[in-house]
Amino acid sequence: MFNLILFGPPGSGKGTQSEKLVEKYGLIHLSTGNLLRAEISNQTKLGLEAKSLMDRGLLVPDEVVIGMIRSAIEANPGARGFLFDGFPRTVAQAEALDRLLTEKKSSITTVLALEVTREELVQRLLNRGRTFGRSDDSDPEVIRARIIEYENKTTPVADYYRQFDKVEQIKGEGGIDDIFQVLCDRIKNRQEA
Ligand code: B4P
Questions:
Q1: DSSP, res 104
Q2: What's the predicted TM-score (pTM) here?
Q3: What residue's CA is closest to ligand 1, atom 47?
Q4: Cα 189 to middle of ligand 1, angstroms
Q5: Which residues line ligand 1 (CB under 6 A)?
Q6: Atom 26 (ligand 1): residue with closest C-alpha?
Q7: What is the pLDDT of residues 2-35, one digit of tens each?
């Protein structure tokens, strides 16, 4: 199996690049943000609990997202691989994902880490808030809280994968197609290594 993680702060282009990557490589796209927003729009108990955290820019508890990812992996037994978008966001999630993939006799192939300055992140998210009305994109204080959660709880995930030499750092500023090309080049290098 061929499994990618698209890693980066909120607004770094994970969702944007994921759509292009899954199409090119025939992967199943697993975005925990999208899975949580589906729970919210279906007004499930899980969704209502998640919404109050997401609206404050806080992470949803590990056991909730790990359970969602486990179900999604098990629902796709014939997949040629998965693209994990916005997951894992804590070291506990990364360890749980390793265990899940080991059960399937698989592992993470590469972690693609997008780097974008804080100023650019805030601008992109406020812009999306104005365009699409996502509640966690509209308030600068909530955006700030999301970036702080990322710096405190999610950046250690990159260090976790660095110890296994799985991380590719990529500049996430510039044209969307140019960034996609760099992502594809890095994947190719890894496949040939
Ligand atoms: P997500 O849905 O993952 O939201 P996100 O981090 O903002 O990334 P997204 O993929 O949507 O945006 P993108 O960077 O593509 O998470 C939302 C919330 O869910 C979290 O705050 C948390 O509460 C919860 N959650 C999700 N997963 C969790 C987990 N594993 N554990 C715990 N909690 C979890 O794009 C942003 C904008 O930038 C877009 O408008 C796009 O058009 C624009 N853009 C992209 N690339 C660009 C470029 N090159 N130039 C200019 N603009 C660009």
A1: T
A2: 0.94
A3: 13
A4: 26
A5: 10-16, 32-33, 36, 53-54, 57-60, 65, 86-87, 89, 93, 124, 128, 136, 146, 176, 179
A6: 33
A7: 999 999 999 999 999 999 999 999 999 999 999 9
